[in-house]
Write a structure and sequence with these properties.
Mean pLDDT: 86
Order of helices and strands: HHHEHHEEHHH
Number of strands: 3
Oligomer: single chain
Distance between the termini: 43 Å
Strand content: 5-15%
Shape: elongated
Number of helices: 8
CATH topology of one domain: Arc Repressor Mutant, subunit A
CATH architecture of one domain: Orthogonal Bundle
CATH superfamily of one domain: Winged helix-like DNA-binding domain superfamily/Winged helix DNA-binding domain
Strand order of the largest sheet: 1-3-2
CATH class of one domain: Mainly Alpha
């Protein structure tokens, strides 16, 4: 999308909250990455699964935990990867209820072809100078180190000196 095609003017976007800016940017980068991965019938969710399997076989539960989705979601994802010939699910020898997932040669080939760290980085920092990229990375690392994981997020996020949290009286 060029700036002439954006439905929101630059002035309007500048008034958005930081959360909205971050969320919108993340979705746009995700869509661009998905468009790249679609060549191999992959997406931002299935790509890391192939990567994990390239390092070792895993159970469906281990994969779900690693990519932070439910087992049901992982089951659907693996069914699609299996149909595409990228993975094989086999009953575990000692526990027939458990399935071991193995990367097949076609999956390894798709992973190797789709893996492009330069493209991934370029998609995430389009239009930024090297200095802006360095600042963005530092800010994101700091933000992520202060935000709890979903499992840890039981209460309001600390405001770090930005005023009372929403839940404060």
């Amino acid at each position: 999308m060029t700036s002439g095609q954006n439905e929101d003017s630059a002035d309007e976007v500048a008034r958005w909250t930081t959360g909205r800016l971050l969320s919108t940017a993340a979705r746009r980068v995700e869509r661009a990455w998905d468009a790249h991965l679609d060549t191999w019938r992959l997406n931002h969710a299935s790509f890391p699964v192939l990567y994990l399997l390239s390092r070792a076989d895993h159970s469906q539960r281990e994969l779900a935990d690693a990519v932070r989705v439910t087992e049901q979601t992982m089951s659907r994802m693996l069914a699609r990867l299996e149909r595409d010939g990228y993975v094989r699910r086999s009953p575990c020898g000692d526990d027939r209820r458990r399935h071991v997932v193995t990367l097949l040669p076609a999956g390894a080939e798709a992973l190797a072809a789709a893996y492009d760290p330069t493209l991934a980085e370029d998609l995430a920092v389009t239009g930024l100078t090297d200095s802006q990229v360095a600042c963005l990375r530092a800010a994101l690392v700091s933000l992520l180190s202060h935000l709890p994981d979903a499992e840890e997020a039981a209460g309001p996020v600390p405001t770090a000196g930005r005023g009372p949290s929403r839940g404060a009286a």
